[in-house]
Amino acid sequence: MSEFIYKITADDLDRCWEFSLKYYLDETKPVHNRRVGSARGVGGIIDSFFLKIIEIAVCKNLEALSSQDIEVPPDLEIRPLTKGKTEPDVYKIIDKKTKKKRDPKVYIEIKQLQSNHNWVGPTEKEIESISKNEFGVKDEKKMYYFWCEIVDSKMDETHSRRSSLLGSYLKHLAPDNPHLDSFHDFTDMQVEIKFIHSIDEIKQGMFFPEDTVLVDPEIFTQDGTKTFKKKFEAGDMSDYDEVAIGKNFPNPVVYSNGKEYSLFGIFGKVEYAGKVKMYLKKPKKDESGNPVAGSKRYMLVCETPVSVTSRLGNWDFEEGDIWCYSISPSGAFPKLRNGNYLEARRYLKQKKLFHPSKELMQEIADAL
């Protein structure tokens, strides 16, 4: 659990609700989805703007920590952008005594992480836009990203939709409606600040150029291992070829949209220590008997304890373990339309990088 959490309140959600409705009813505001371009109805707008709760959480944490006598309001005003297309999520500072408003002295962008998000990082275009901001913040070491997750203590992976923040609020508004009873209570939810990094820091990480394929950084899974284990124990290896390996596992290559993409230049070698045997799953064949192109899937048999190190993170396996090593495309549309600066979530947690320490939070709060 993060050191910095914020318990969600009814007042917070009232503010998100009011902002969402005012936004939707303002005919000057766009309602299309920025990713796919389709128009959103009032439900889609409300659902998306309930994520304002993470901005509220960050602002509340920073205000509580700041040694300055200031208010740090979340951006819940319906207004035109006043300083170009890019504005920070912490967009103004208010002196509590004089009520005077001023621009923040650091740039803060607040992003949502979901529990199944394995990458952390922004697009190249977004970074370029923020770096050209008109708020007077020119040092990329003072331009921060906050990555936050909404955590439900009653989360049930088999019924994950019951953790909807909007659903919980509708249940709060209409407690006698039986159709809303399945939603969880927002009183069991909180916002956790998971990672903080500056633009300067993330630009030193891995860069996925435009038109490359984003892959799942969890390159070791149990996919196909049950079938392999049965065949391996029965001595039937007709569907697999044993692969000779040296100090490193086969170079990371992914197949997507009829093309192979090498990712060796992005995250480099996958090294290991220990004794292993590796078997490559033979490709499927078409009606003519020709191999069908696809991502390669290797089965890893650990003959001793095995430690794997890579830029994506570390893994430790026990003697006798069987794992699948495969580089797979991530998401429904893995080909990137923009360049991305990314770090694997596993790697950040293991190395304790971008950790939202009290010292860092205090530094940012005092710099506002």
Task: Describe what this molecule looks like in 3D.
The structure is a single chain. It is built from ten helices and 20 strands. Strand 12 (253-256) and strand 13 (259-262) form a beta hairpin. The strands form six sheets. The protein has a five-stranded antiparallel β-sheet with strand order 10-19-16-15-11, covered by helices on one side. It has two domains: 5-211 and 337-367, no CATH class; 220-326, no CATH class. It is an alpha+beta fold and 368 residues long.
Q: Layout of helices and strands, plus pairs?
A:
Elements: E1 5-7, H1 10-25, H2 42-49, H3 52-65, E2 70-71, E3 93-95, E4 101-102, E5 107-113, E6 119-120, H4 124-131, E7 143-152, H5 165-173, E8 189-198, H6 199-202, E9 206-208, E10 220-221, H7 225-234, E11 240-243, E12 253-256, E13 259-262, H8 264-267, E14 271-273, E15 276-281, E16 297-302, E17 306-310, E18 313-317, E19 322-326, E20 340-344, H9 345-351, H10 358-367
Parallel strand pairs: 5-7
Antiparallel strand pairs: 1-8, 2-3, 3-4, 6-20, 7-8, 9-20, 10-19, 11-15, 12-13, 14-17, 15-16, 16-19, 17-18
Rg result: 24 Å
How are the strands of the largest sheet arranged? 10-19-16-15-11
Shape: globular
What would you call the structural class?
Answer: alpha+beta
* Count, helices: 10
CA-to-CA gap between the ends? 26 Å
Beta-strand content bin: 15-25%
Largest sheet features: 5 strands, antiparallel
- For the residues shown, what is the average pLDDT? 92
Q: Total strand count, please? A: 20
Low-confidence spans: pLDDT under 50, at least 5 residues? none
Structural domain tally: 2
Order of helices and strands: EHHHEEEEEHEHEHEEHEEEHEEEEEEEHH
Q: How much helicity do the residues have?
A: 10-25%
